[in-house]
Amino acid sequence: MMLSAEQIRSLPSFFLDVPDPRRTHGRRHRLPNILALATAAILCGMNGYRAIAHWAQSLSQTARQRFGCRLENGRYVVPSEYVIRNVLIRVDPAATDRALQNWNQTYGKEDQSLIIDGKIMRNAFDGKADKPIS
């Protein structure tokens, strides 16, 4: 799935109401930004914490800026695999689901193949052609 610059910039704002399960002390990355990165990675087909973290690490500085990543020593940094895992295990699933549904209501009209829980359709056919939908 390809996300537009507007979708990337707006994605963290949909997670602003999700309660942060982490202690205040030592937080380096904002929860909405972590959840936005994880959501985009899953929508792009990443499965598992390591794949999500590698996907985030592979982002350009421009993409990291669009996701609202933290600026450190003149470079935008993404959370580590540990941070991503810790957040995804502990975050409130109902609040996260509401945020994703709101995002899907906003952008899902543009892409009917968007699936809210991040599952990827593989080898799906649209009935109009003999080739998979991409």
Helical content, roughly?
Answer: 40-55%
The Cα radius of gyration reads: 15 Å
Q: How many H/I helices?
A: 6
- The number of strands is 2
Return the domain count.
1
**Strand content of the residues, in percent?**
under 5%
Shape: globular
Q: Would you list the SSEs in sequence order as H and E?
A: HHHHEEHH
Query: What is the CA-CA span between the terminal residues?
Result: 8 Å
Structural class by helix and strand composition: mainly alpha
Main pleated sheet: 2 strands, antiparallel
What does this protein look like?
This protein has 134 residues and is mainly alpha-helical. It has one domain (5-107). The chain has helices spanning 5-10, 31-43, 49-57, 61-66, 81-90, 93-107, and strands at residues 70-72, 75-77. The protein has a two-stranded antiparallel sheet. Strand 1 (70-72) and strand 2 (75-77) form a beta hairpin. Helix 2 (31-43) packs across helix 3 (49-57), helix 2 (31-43) crosses helix 5 and helix 3 (49-57) packs across helix 5 (81-90). The radius of gyration is 15 Å and the shape is globular. Residues 114-134 have low confidence and may be disordered.
Task: Please name the defining characteristics of this protein.
two-stranded antiparallel sheet; mainly alpha; globular; 134 residues
